[in-house]
Amino acid sequence: MEQPQPRKLYRSQPDRKLAGVCGGLGEYLNVDMTLVRVLSWYWRCAAEQGLVLYLAMWILIPEPSKPQPPTGN
Question: How many domains does the chain have?
Answer without folding.
Answer: 1
